[in-house]
Amino acid sequence: MIQSKNHSQRVRVGFPAVVAVLTAFTVSGCAIVGSGIQTRPNYTAPTPTGIEGNWRNTENVYTASFINNSTQWTSIEDGSILISGSYVQTTTTDYTLQLNSLVTGQSRSANCRLVNINRLNCTGQDGNQFSMVRIANTV
User: Fold this and answer.
1) Phi-psi region for residue 81, left (φ > 0), alpha (ψ -120 to 50) or beta?
2) Rounded to an integer, what distance in angstroms lies between the CA atom of residue 133 and that of residue 129?
3) Smallest Cα–Cα separation from 87: which of 126, 37, 47, 51?
4) pLDDT digits (tens, 9 = 90+) for 58-70
5) 3-state secondary structure the chain
6) pTM of the entire structure?
7) Per-residue burial over 97-118, b = 16 or more CB atoms within 10 Å of its CB, e = otherwise
8) Which residues make Cβ contacts (< 8 Å) with residue 73, sequence separation at least 6?
9) How far apart are CA 94 and CA 101, in angstroms?
10) Distance in angstroms (rounded) separating the CA atoms of residues 69 and 120
11) Bridge partners of residue 53, in order along the sequence
12) For residue 136, what are the contacts with CB-CB under 8 A and spacing of at least 6?
């Protein structure tokens, strides 16, 4: 119920009328406010090159980061650092890794090939093979 200024008359307003008025204010308010909103352009992450970035082995045991010719491998289970080392690019798709195990204290090497931008296949000096897949970087 709405009262006029002289308080002697009462005007009855039904629920549908109130909804219509609120809807009109809401829509017009959105149009006014909406006209000033600028949308952010869609962000596209740069296409990775080489092995730089973050990887996960295909057995889900560790993640590996390759940054500025240094690498560090971390346990997925407990977050402990398993391996630290370095790498050198020898061709456009081939890399040599020098790996130091923080678990066993041994140093090993591996030769790796970037078979596509998201997969790295490696063979250790002992002949064991392993593969990693690229982890999408978060922005």
Assistant:
1) beta
2) 14
3) 51
4) 999 999 999 999 9
5) CEECCCCCCEECCCHHHHHHHHHHHHHHHHHHHHCCCCCCCCCCCCCCCCCCEEEEECCCCEEEEEECCEEEEEECCCCCEEEEEEEEECCCCEEEEEEEECCCCCEEEEEEEEEECCEEEEEECCCCEEEEEECCCCC
6) 0.66
7) bebeeeeeeeebebebebeeee
8) 62, 63, 64, 81, 82, 83, 84, 99
9) 22
10) 16
11) 66
12) 45
Structure tokens at 102: 């923080």
Residue 101: CB partners within 8 Å, gap ≥ 6?
A: 82, 83, 107, 108
Residue with tokens 């010719």: 69
Cα angle 11, 13, 31 (rounded to 5 degrees) comes to 125
Q: Hey, what are 120's tokens?
A: 């790295």
Tokens (6 digits) for 78? 């407990």
Q: Kindly report, residue by residue over 34-58, the tens digit of the pLDDT.
A: 455 555 666 666 677 899 999 999 9
